């Protein structure tokens, strides 16, 4: 089991309850999409899975370990096995694209190799291959501050593909992308999971992408799991219950990752 949440709850320091009594298990090699309204708790759940946020209630297991019972050194080793794509990539603007991609393996390399790679990239071919999968092979030596927001988001995805983690997490990885690029990113994340056996969990506002690419879809609302079902079993009524408070009709769940709402009839 790659992920196990039991009675998981979290209250932020400001008193806001982000998660409540979440029970969820994800097996090794599974691909799961988290969908739901903004503020539903999806990002908090991903931060728990990334061992970067400690729950205030319940128990969490990540890749077979309780992160918060590990020593500091063991926790660092666990985190090197986890790849996280942020909605807003934390990439220094003056960094070259090749260096940003190779940073995916800094935690796996010796300190000497990591420092040398900052001066002279140690695996140019590996970085180029990861970028080429996302139509960015020609941007290898570009500075990151010369890229568009969508290109920078794809660089962040390329970095995780290059990392080859055991657990691949993505928080709105297509939020800055056009429909064609969003489809490409989703397909490459799934391909990476299947090729390496990595577990994949991604939060998506683009309901059509979740239903198209992910075998399993988990609907999250108000910090709780509303449904957990195969994509083929997700119905308009389930989406209405999930998104109804946002004013979406049963046939038009929000699809913020792709701009205007996408009719459910086109999502299957």
- Poorly predicted runs of 5 or more residues: 247-268
Query: What does the main sheet amount to?
Result: 6 strands, mixed
Given helix and strand content, the structural type is alpha/beta
Number of strands: 9
Total DSSP helices: 9
* Biggest sheet: strand arrangement: 5-6-7-3-8-9
Estimate the global geometry from the Cα principal axes.
globular
Write down the Rg. 18 Å
Distance between the termini: 28 Å
> What's the helix-strand series?
EEEHEHEHHHHEHEHEEH
Content of β-strand: 15-25%
Average pLDDT across residues?
Answer: 88
Helix content: 25-40%
Question: What are its keywords?
Answer:
268 residues; alpha/beta; six-stranded mixed sheet; three-stranded antiparallel sheet; 9 helices; 9 strands; 33% helix; globular; disordered C terminus
Fold and architecture overview:
The chain is of the alpha/beta class. About 35% of the residues lie in helices and about 20% in strands. The protein is built from nine helices and nine strands. The strands form two sheets. A six-stranded mixed β-sheet has the order 5-6-7-3-8-9, with helices on both faces. Strand 8 (about 215-220) and strand 9 (about 225-230) form a beta hairpin. Helix 5 (about 125-130) packs across helix 6 and helix 6 packs parallel to helix 7. The longest helix has 18 residues, at about 180-195. The chain is globular and about 50 Å long. The protein starts with a strand and ends in a 25-residue tail after the last helix. The model is unreliable at about 245-268 (pLDDT under 50).
